[in-house]
Design goal:
DNA-binding, zinc ion binding, transcription
DNA sequence: GTTTTGCATGGTA
DNA sequence: CTACCATGCAAAA
């Protein structure tokens, strides 16, 4: 449990070992993910005994000798990265020697002052704090200058080489050994880690970070601004006390229950404003405060953070903090952050504050009216909000009122994050923000702009509003993926992670990349080869769900030929020749010339390529030779951006629903009682007002194609379902007419086979009868006189839809659906005789979708087999 | 008719 | 089960 990544394999984490781990694998070094490597018994013992590097890395580079005892220490791997210390004049020192050279300073009242509060929950924060490396990338650290810190903090992880240290900090081991933490703690820690700069642990193990952090506090001469990637060091913890980090707090508590019992509980007794804002100061030794101020070092306020849910833990980046830091002599203490909900970012101008955050960090208020609160933004502008509360369920609900101007000026939207910090020593509140799509500082060096032109760091970008407007359209899509959607993702995370996938734990930058290419990915999704799809109903709309994850189809290039007809180019997997295909073709990822059923002349790899090199070069996008960039498409048709966003979100859902194999039941029972703008469900993804740019009916973007394809598939399912229903009806009639009882098994078989009877080639006769009957039903044909003209509405207006939807499967809805199905069926029959059917089918699908929309998509789908593939060519491509 | 305000509701962790 | 909080909603302005 402690090590998801390492435990995922049954093999010892030591790549040189290959042994199987035991049931209870031994814990090794801390991985970059923050988890502990899981080792087989042999390697684990070696690690515990400090012989791991000797055994496995003896031939590796990086061996150095302790300057004091000359013991050889491997300094070139993560395993032993915490076994030594860097010395000021150069060289290293093993822990044992380093420890000997340390003298506990007498002026450090840490045992007393450190007993801040009895916060058992410090564990979480501490773990997080540990993860928040402030030191990655930091320069030389004067290790020996912080003896006390060394003593205390060094006792973090397993330090086999220094048993005494381990003993000294037994509780630290407990703290840092993931396996001893409750799952929730780990989860939270991981969640927290997700927001940290990726380089947090690149250079140093967590222990070093802690150590260095402590040292740094002692080293007043070294500015560490660039080291403070995260406000991990809590204010009082960054003092030169031995436990320079939050981590020790709980250790103290844990180890010495008598310590730290006197502290006031921030949540229970919020200090008065003035005291509140400086409340951390008294906890820290004076020197600490000075150091902090001088260094301008941001650090999170631990005083209440352990009370907060991890999602409120501030994750300011260094850059953000620097920007917030108006006064270079001030210290920014991040307090908490809040990801804006739709309500927060909406026009109401009320930002709901997490209760604990409000009570911990904001002035206490006794009247619902609250009081006006001045908050500075990153540019130094002062905003005045009304900080107040409403009585709610015998509790309080805290809000900041009047935030609209601020939110607007920051151009924040749901999914973006506002961070509340405190400016020390003034105690003023400062408000930073982070766009949902902003990336972490580690990305800033090489990625000032994300692929979609979106600002990598919102606050900098904000200085130039024009740049925002420039990227607004496209950026919004990314934000949707990253921001609002991230909310959804987070909500679903547990589900997702509990299933087979751990995909959401990818690094931030990967996420961003993923989001950039989200639409592309959607357009490429194909049903798994041997899928037996079931239907997931989300907000009344059906989605295919597969036992297997959908596969990625082949990226192709859409273009027009000389006649202006839409075509696409696909590259053969084998010969790499590019083949011209109908734009409607949906290709599997492994597509070869032999699959080119559209062009008999180029059915094999031996056939020459139509394209010349120049043509191909023109065809291929500059950066990506295969996948047309989403943003490019957006640029070309900015009007589609918003609709794209919605479609994209729909597509995302499909990815989640299929790829993550969301339980159909779970999805089906997850109701969205109301329109939730931040939600990515089919209803909520649309612009609330229904305004905004629309997709044209003729739009052939990947997303539209995907949507069309999906709906087509759905209609096919309904067709099947309908036939089966009618077949059943017919059969029942027959039963009534001929009271010859069918064997019960047959009945069962028939019913049971409903979901899989649509394998296409083995429909029962009854089904076919039902089919035929429905085709000939004049009343249903009549109903095809729909006012919707059979166009696919790519810009569904959810609110209207909601209005129209009775919310339940009423007869009227069924009728509409029925009509759509029948019309589709009929048209299919007609088309089957005429050959090319794309145009008319498109109309039908459009109708079906319209009806679908009206009916709010009652779910009664049976599964369909290979409908996608079978009808891939009949994608509506009419212009 | 629109916006604001205060509270209630219900989903979710 | 409970607390939290996002958001709906109706009354008030």
């Amino acid at each position: 449990m402690a090590s998801a990544s390492s435990s995922s394999s049954k093999l010892c984490f030591n790549s040189d070992c290959k042994e199987l781990k035991s049931e209870r694998p031994k814990k090794g070094w801390r991985l970059r993910s923050g988890e502990l490597a899981e080792l087989c018994d042999r390697c684990g013992s070696a690690f515990e005994e400090g012989r791991f590097c000797e055994i496995f890395h003896s031939n590796a580079s990086g061996w150095r000798s302790c300057e004091t005892c000359l013991k050889r220490i491997h300094c070139g791997c993560i395993v032993s990265s915490h076994a030594f210390m860097l010395l000021d004049p150069g060289g290293i020192e093993c822990y044992a020697c380093a420890r000997k050279s340390i003298i506990l300073p007498s002026n450090l009242p840490w045992p007393q002052s450190f007993s801040l509060q009895n916060r058992l929950s410090d564990r979480l924060r501490d773990l997080s704090a540990k993860g928040w490396s402030q030191l990655a990338g930091s320069g030389p650290v004067p290790w020996k200058q912080a003896p006390s810190l060394f003593n205390s903090a060094s006792s973090s992880d397993l330090i086999p080489e220094v048993p005494s240290l381990v003993e000294l900090s037994n509780s630290f081991d407990k703290m840092y050994c993931n396996e001893r933490l409750p799952a929730s703690a780990l989860e939270k820690k991981n969640e927290d880690l997700s927001g940290i700069p990726v380089n947090w642990n690149v250079k140093l193990g967590s222990r070093e970070m802690m150590l260095m952090n402590g040292m740094r506090n002692e080293d007043k001469s070294s500015s560490c601004l660039n080291m403070c990637q995260q406000p991990s060091s809590l204010k009082e913890e960054s003092s030169p006390q031995p436990f320079g980090l939050a981590v020790p707090n709980s250790c103290q508590n844990e180890r010495n229950g008598q310590l730290g019992v006197t502290g006031s509980h921030p949540q229970q007794t919020p200090p008065p404003p003035g005291k509140q804002f400086n409340g951390t100061m008294h906890l820290a030794p004076d020197s600490s405060g000075e150091a902090q101020i001088r260094n301008g070092r941001p650090r999170a306020d631990s005083r209440g953070r352990n009370q907060l849910l991890p999602r409120y833990w501030p994750r300011c980046t260094d850059l953000e903090l620097q920007q917030i830091s108006i006064d270079s002599n001030s210290v920014i203490t991040p307090l908490f952050q809040k990801t804006l909900s739709a309500s927060d970012a909406g026009r109401i101008g009320r930002l709901v504050l997490p209760k604990k955050c409000a009570e911990t960090y904001f002035p206490p208020i006794s009247q619902p009216e609250g009081l006006p609160l001045k908050i500075l933004d990153a540019k130094g502008k002062e905003w005045i909000f009304q900080f107040r509360f409403w009585p709610n369920n015998n509790s309080r609900m805290y809000v900041l009122e009047g935030v609209t101007p601020c939110i607007q000026s920051m151009q924040l939207q749901a999914g973006d994050t506002v961070t509340f910090s405190r400016l020390e020593p003034e105690g003023r509140l400062v408000m930073g923000f982070r766009k949902a799509s902003s990336v972490m500082p580690s990305d800033q060096d090489n990625e000032t702009k994300t692929g979609n032109g979106f600002s990598a760091h919102g606050e900098v970008e904000l200085a130039d509003p024009n740049s925002w407007s420039k990227v607004d359209k496209s950026g919004y899509i990314a934000k949707e993926a990253l921001g609002s959607k991230s909310l959804i993702s987070r909500k679903r995370k547990s589900n997702i992670l509990s299933s087979k996938s751990k995909r959401l734990r990818i690094e931030n930058e990967d996420l961003i990349e993923l989001k950039i290419t989200w639409q592309e990915a959607q357009g490429l999704l194909r049903p798994p080869p041997s899928h037996i799809p079931s239907i997931v109903v989300i907000e009344g709309f059906e989605f295919e769900e597969y036992e297997e994850a959908p596969v990625l189809g082949k990226p192709t290039i859409f273009t027009s030929d000389s006649v202006g007809e839409k075509i696409q180019w696909a590259q053969c997997e084998d010969c790499f020749k590019w083949r011209k295909l109908p734009a409607s073709a949906l290709l599997p990822s492994k597509w070869t010339c032999s699959d080119n059923s559209w062009d008999p002349e180029r059915f094999s790899c031996s056939a020459a390529q139509e394209l010349t090199a120049e043509q191909l070069e023109n065809l291929l996008p500059p950066c990506n030779s295969a996948v047309p960039k989403k943003m490019k498409a957006t640029k070309q048709d900015p009007d589609n951006a918003e609709a794209l966003e919605g479609l994209d979100t729909l597509a995302n859902l499909a990815i989640l629903g299929e790829g993550e194999a969301l339980p159909a039941s779970a999805q089906a029972t997850t109701k969205h009682p109301r329109h939730r703008p931040g939600c990515s469900c089919i209803v909520c993804i649309q612009p609330p007002s229904g305004k905004g740019p629309k997709h044209k009916q003729t739009c052939t973007c990947n997303v539209c194609l995907t949507v069309k394809r999906r709906f087509r598939t759905l209609m096919l399912r309904r067709e099947k379902k309908q036939s089966e229903k009618e077949a059943e009806t017919t059969r029942k009639k027959q039963q009534q007419q001929h009271p010859l009882p069918l064997p019960s098994s047959e009945i069962l078989l028939d019913e049971d086979s409903l979901p899989c009877s649509n394998t296409g080639d083995s429909s029962p006769n009854q089904n076919k009868e039902g089919n035929d009957g429905s085709d000939d039903d004049p009343s249903r044909i009549k109903s095809s006189a729909s006012p919707f003209k059979g166009k696919i509405d790519l810009n569904i207006q959810p609110e209207r839809e909601e209005e129209l939807s009775p919310g339940s499967d009423s007869g009227g809805m069924m009728k509409l659906l029925h009509d759509a199905t029948e019309r589709y069926l009929k048209q299919q029959t007609v088309n089957s005789g005429t050959g090319d059917s794309s145009g008319s089918q498109s109309q039908l699908v459009g109708d079906a979708m319209r009806e679908d929309k009206l009916s709010n998509g009652v779910a009664h789908g049976s599964s369909s087999h290979n409908t996608d593939k079978e009808h891939a060519q009949s994608l509506p491509m009419n212009v």
